[in-house]
């Protein structure tokens, strides 16, 4: 897909996920930017698109109210700011969207809500129902309950997860720069803008500079992480300037955004969850033969190819499959608990039967329940 072709296709899409960062909503000129954002989102919504907004800004608005100058270092103070600021944030959106007669709904999430298959499906049902009711869901992290293990850490990753879950046709990450540059444009005047990336490889990651401000977390690194996840799943992504440009310009024009082209193959819902969302409960290390069979021929994992394992997992849990060089090559749901892997690793099926008394599954991980990364 070429960039020009893609951009002309943008108006024919069905679902769009847009993420906005805290600076866009809090720095000087914020009223005009939020007004413009609500206008553009309402325009797309009225054209019949299904629109989801992932919005940061709860902590930043709370900092304002609580008169906290620097982003708090302690989690409880961040949580208190988020609790106060989320109300303010939604109040602002409500007032701007109501001028366009568009209804909005609030959805607050933690990682736990996505890692649990049941809650993940519940969330998907709620989002789809809101969209069917012609409401724009506004999603944020549930910062006031999030602790380290259940936190996303930043909304780039959260927005990518929402894009995967909602089968978005495009993800737009609005920030305070016009996409990717070969150097940090805030420090280097000769930095060159990159309008399209067709393959997000390690040299692209190197270009990103970590830029943590007093207000928001993350930086270009996490934006690229989100874009990589999505393009691998088959969803095109844009990182664009929501600060001095508008959402519609970011969608239409080359000069205020970077477009990341998707891989040709679209992952299924199950593969997306396995690859990017589900929690790994352990890992199995496989020999070179198994590694090749999984990676190149799409084969299932048999006990004969397993050299070692770690972690405590039960039947149906997800585990990482790694090669001898420690690289994770695939993830999948196991047919045997970790307590049995120790005795069957390296064994042929006939030996497994002898050792365990019976064999319910010939594969440790069936290829249908596995995603190759
Ligand atoms: N959830 C946080 C907030 O709304 C934002 C995290 C981020 O900056 O991405 O304030």
Describe this protein's structure.
The chain is of the alpha/beta class. The protein folds into two domains: 15-271, 3-Layer(aba) Sandwich (Carbamate kinase), CATH 3.40.1160.10; 280-372, Roll (Archaeosine Trna-guanine Transglycosylase, Chain: A, domain 4). Helix content is 41%, strand content 20%. Strands 3-4-2-1-5-9-10-8 form an eight-stranded mixed sheet, with helices on both faces. Strands 12-11-13-14-15 form a five-stranded mixed sheet, with helices on both faces. Strands 6-7 form a two-stranded antiparallel ribbon. A hairpin with a 5-residue loop joins strand 13 (318-322) and strand 14. The chain is elongated, with a radius of gyration of 23 Å. Residues 22, 56-60, 82, 140-141, 143, 154-155, 216-218 line the site of glutamic acid (GLU). Residues 22, 56-60, 82, 140-141, 143, 154-155, 216-218 line the site of glutamic acid.
Molecules bound to protein: glutamic acid
Measured by DSSP, the beta-strand proportion falls in 15-25%
Helix segment count? 15
- Radius of gyration over C-alpha positions, nearest whole angstrom: 23 Å
Low-confidence stretches: 210-216
The major sheet is characterized as: 8 strands, mixed
Overall 3D shape: elongated
N-end to C-end Cα span: 22 Å
CATH level 4 superfamily of the largest domain: Acetylglutamate kinase-like
Average pLDDT number:
89
Order of helix and strand elements from N to C terminus: HEHHEHHEHHEHEEEEHHEHEHEHEEEHHE
């Amino acid at each position: 897909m070429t960039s020009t072709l893609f951009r002309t296709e943008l108006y024919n899409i069905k679902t769009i996920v847009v993420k906005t960062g805290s600076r866009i909503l809090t720095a000087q000129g914020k009223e005009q930017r939020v007004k413009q954002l609500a206008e553009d989102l309402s325009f797309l919504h009225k054209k019949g698109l299904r629109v989801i907004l992932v919005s940061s800004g709860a902590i930043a608005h709370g900092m304002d109210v609580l008169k906290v100058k620097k982003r708090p270092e302690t989690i409880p103070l961040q949580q208190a700011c988020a609790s106060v600021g989320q109300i303010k944030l939604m109040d602002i959106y409500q007032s701007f969207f109501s001028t366009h007669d568009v209804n909005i709904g609030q959805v607050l999430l933690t990682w736990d809500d996505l890692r649990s298959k049941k809650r993940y499906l519940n969330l998907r049902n709620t989002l789809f129902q809101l969209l069917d009711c012609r409401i724009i869901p506004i999603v944020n992290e549930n910062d006031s309950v999030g602790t380290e293990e259940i936190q996303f850490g930043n909304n780039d990753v959260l927005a990518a997860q929402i894009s995967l879950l909602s089968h978005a046709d495009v993800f737009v990450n609005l920030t305070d720069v016009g996409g990717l540059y070969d150097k940090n444009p805030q420090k280097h005047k000769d930095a060159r803008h990159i309008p399209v990336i067709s393959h997000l490889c390690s040299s692209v990651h190197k270009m990103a500079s970590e830029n943590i401000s007093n207000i928001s977390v993350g930086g270009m690194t996490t934006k690229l992480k989100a874009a990589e996840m999505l393009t691998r799943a088959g969803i095109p992504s844009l990182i664009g300037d929501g600060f001095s440009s508008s959402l519609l310009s970011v969608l239409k024009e080359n000069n205020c955004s970077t477009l990341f082209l998707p891989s040709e193959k679209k992952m299924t819902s199950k593969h997306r969850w396995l690859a990017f969302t589900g929690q790994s409960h352990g890992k199995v290390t496989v020999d070179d033969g198994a590694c090749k069979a999984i990676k190149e021929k799409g084969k299932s994992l048999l006990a004969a190819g397993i050299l070692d394992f770690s972690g405590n997992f039960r039947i149906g849990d997800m585990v990482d499959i790694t090669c001898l060089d420690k690289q994770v090559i695939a993830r999948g749901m196991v047919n045997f608990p970790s307590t049995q892997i120790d005795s069957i690793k390296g064994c042929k099926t006939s030996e497994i039967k002898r050792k365990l008394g019976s064999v319910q599954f010939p594969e440790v991980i069936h290829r249908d329940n596995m995603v190759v990364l």
